[in-house]
């Protein structure tokens, strides 16, 4: 896709979703890290509901590790995969206390070493908690990027690399939110609403459906 088309897409997204931000509620990098771990296969609304209670008492790694796996599992059960999430949150919290003095580290390399923390979670934390430019590729970003043609790839990592190449660094974090919001509201997985999409003039899926059907 040429640069002009990418610029047009970014302009339209910015105009359409000026308020796009992280939908998870958090008061510290640690809370965002835990919320992002909880958000796998779960809605942000559900996570916010669970954490509004959880963080009243357990909002630091030191406090979190006073819970057993079963106790934490009971508190986060409605987020799904609660046994695994509980185990990873506690292991990560222990590591934060032992290796980082209870703080969340600021680099991708250190973050992805933490149990249950992948690139996507690390990107979300880096960008939203520390203001480090990053583009986390979740299911929405992956789908919308491929359909638009703004970044094509068969894996989230490839799409992330393409997006970083095609989008100015100063817009990485905002673009991540724009693409999520667009995927949730218009370019939905099963039935994209191309008829009402402001990006249709620039979209490969819309303009060349014979080539791309995802
Ligand atoms: S035109 Fe259709 S496929 Fe393209 S971004 Fe819009 S909704 Fe998605």
UniProtKB/TrEMBL annotation:
Pfam families: EndIII_4Fe-2S (PF10576), HHH (PF00633), HhH-GPD (PF00730). The keyword Signal does not apply. GO terms for biological process: base-excision repair, AP site formation. It catalyses: 2'-deoxyribonucleotide-(2'-deoxyribose 5'-phosphate)-2'-deoxyribonucleotide-DNA = a 3'-end 2'-deoxyribonucleotide-(2,3-dehydro-2,3-deoxyribose 5'-phosphate)-DNA + a 5'-end 5'-phospho-2'-deoxyribonucleoside-DNA + H(+). Its cofactor is [4Fe-4S] cluster. Residues 38-185 form the HhH-GPD domain. InterPro entries: DNA_glycosylase (IPR011257), Endonuclease-III-like_CS2 (IPR004036), Endonuclease3_FeS-loop_motif (IPR003651), HhH-GPD_domain (IPR003265), HhH_base_excis_C (IPR023170), HhH_motif (IPR000445), Nth (IPR005759). Binds 1 [4Fe-4S] cluster. The keyword Iron-sulfur applies. SUPFAM superfamilies: DNA-glycosylase. [4Fe-4S] cluster binds at residues 187, 194, 197, 203. It is an enzyme of class 4 (lyase). Keywords: 4Fe-4S, DNA damage, DNA repair, DNA-binding, Endonuclease, Glycosidase, Hydrolase, Iron, Iron-sulfur, Lyase, Metal-binding, Nuclease. Its EC number is 4.2.99.18. One of its GO terms (molecular function) is DNA binding. PANTHER family: A/G-SPECIFIC ADENINE GLYCOSYLASE/ENDONUCLEASE III (PTHR10359), ENDONUCLEASE III (PTHR10359:SF18). DNA repair enzyme that has both DNA N-glycosylase activity and AP-lyase activity. The DNA N-glycosylase activity releases various damaged pyrimidines from DNA by cleaving the N-glycosidic bond, leaving an AP (apurinic/apyrimidinic) site. The AP-lyase activity cleaves the phosphodiester bond 3' to the AP site by a beta-elimination, leaving a 3'-terminal unsaturated sugar and a product with a terminal 5'-phosphate. Belongs to the Nth/MutY family. This is Endonuclease III. It comes from Clostridium ljungdahlii. The lineage of its organism: Bacteria, Bacillati, Bacillota, Clostridia, Eubacteriales. The gene is nth.
